[in-house]
Amino acid sequence: MWHLLEPLHALLYYAPEALDEAAALGYDTGERWPSYFAWRAAPLGAAGHDRVTSAFHSFSPAMVAQYVPAVWVTADPADVLAARLRAVDRTYRTVLGGDAVEGPALAEAAALARRAAEAAVRPCPADRPLAAANAALPWPKAPHLALWQAATILREHRGDGHLAALTAAGLDPVETLVSFAAIGAAPEPVFESRGWTPAQWSAARDRLAARGLLHPDGTATETGRALRADIERRTDEGAAAPWTALGPAGTTRLADLLGAPWLAAIGSGLLPAENTLGIGKV
Predict the structure, then answer these.
(1) Mean per-residue pLDDT for 71-82?
(2) Alpha-carbon gap, residue 157 to 151, rounded angstroms
(3) Is there a contact between 12 and 269 (Cβ–Cβ < 8 Å)?
(4) Under the phi-then-psi rule, with left for phi > 0, alpha for psi from -120 to 50, and beta for the rest, what region is 45?
(5) I need a labelling partner for 135 at 20 to 30 A (CA). Which of 126, 146, 147, 180 fits?
(6) pTM for the complete prediction?
């Protein structure tokens, strides 16, 4: 379900319609990070550097400081949230097509996804900050926007749980990325977008090697692969509640309904083939 829903959420960070909306707010769209931090952090309110660094986890604190809290000087979080929905509306109409956006299949998918998302955050524990913040927002009336919001709540709910699993495994933010690259999730240069210096990356490699998690060439040992597999297992277990609540029939039906939108999102060419999200990796 994560693989089906994540591309529908992630379109926001790459679509030209979203960049248009960001530019209208006053953000520099020569790079995607100002709007990325604004779009994703806005549900937290005018959050400061420390809170965003903690919630986003894998970004270097120095990189976060380049954008937060400055993004809230450019635009108020409430205005960002309104523009975010406009961006999704325009993007979905372009990528999925107007007929699909207005069609009964997408409306049914939105209703099922909303049921799952509401189950994910009822109640939402304190260690799920991004899921809770998005769940506290009003539900859009338009089905395609409700689908996007549900996908966002579900992916942040899983992501928040993933951070808890990483912490329990004793991995700090940069070690998280190094160990993920070590199992072949993406080439190391892809992870440079998170702002860690070569020295910080090398030091993390050394720490993981000392734990027996990496070979000298930076690839994962069997122990390192087993640790990452255990993290994914714990993450999946922590993300199971919405799908348990929706039930096998509802989950299967939602998966079937998401097939066409997923294909449209992947086929749009907007999402990078190599990315830190794990899209396309099984």
Answers:
(1) 98
(2) 10
(3) no
(4) left
(5) 180
(6) 0.94
